Amino acid sequence: MEQLPKPVAEVHRPSVSWWPVFLQGEVNIEDVRKKGFSPYVHIGGLVVPAVPNERLVYLFLINWSEGKGFFYEAIDSNGAS
Hints:
The chain is mainly β. The protein has one domain. It is built from two helices and five strands, in the order H-E-E-H-E-E-E. It has a three-stranded antiparallel β-sheet with strand order 3-4-5. It has a two-stranded antiparallel ribbon with strand order 1-2. The longest helix has 6 residues, at 29-34. It is elongated and about 40 Å long. The model has no long low-confidence stretch (mean pLDDT 87).
């Protein structure tokens, strides 16, 4: 994966103190990998069936060797292309 889908390419900091700095703002895939994390994206189903162009987009960042990971979700109002 070279580029993240637009809805998860920029992460808004959750209101938790343990959220890592490298996952705030624009996410740089190369930096994520240098820190030992593998990025995965899942584009989910409809958010609300009555609004067919909105989809949930999930970003998973897993560091398999350290046994930890993070996930972030966002809504794509354009159908998650």
